[in-house]
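Predict the 3D structure for this chain.
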Amino acid sequence: MAAAVLPRGDILLGVLLVIGFASLAQFPLYYSFSQELTERHQGKLTGSLSCINWLAMYLMQELAGASAVQTGSYSQGMALAGLAPLAGFAAMIVLWGKDPPPPEDSPPEAENAPSGTAGSTAIQAAKSDTTTGIQEEPRDA
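Done. Predicted structure below.
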């Protein structure tokens, strides 16, 4: 939002460069995190999210252009664009670290066991090969 109120000059150029570099830095994280969501449908997920992003950019550009024509300035659009990252930051602060409740069908010893003990052994013992139905043996750490 600082770029919207800065006068032309070297400081504005520097702020815009920092914003540009920061926006480019998000793409490796985006692709890494999207791979965590699905293994089998990576192309569908990435393509769908990219399409949604481009459709949102189209709408945003239309609204930014209409605002600039109406007000004669891009300041209002730049200030509003700065609210989306602030909303994401606020959501991250509120939601970060909240552990989901354990599944209802999990074994009782797995819920309270520290990492690497009975909980992980029970989970490993429950894994099975879906093609053959053979149960895997728990591995000792």
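The two ends are 51 Å apart (CA to CA).
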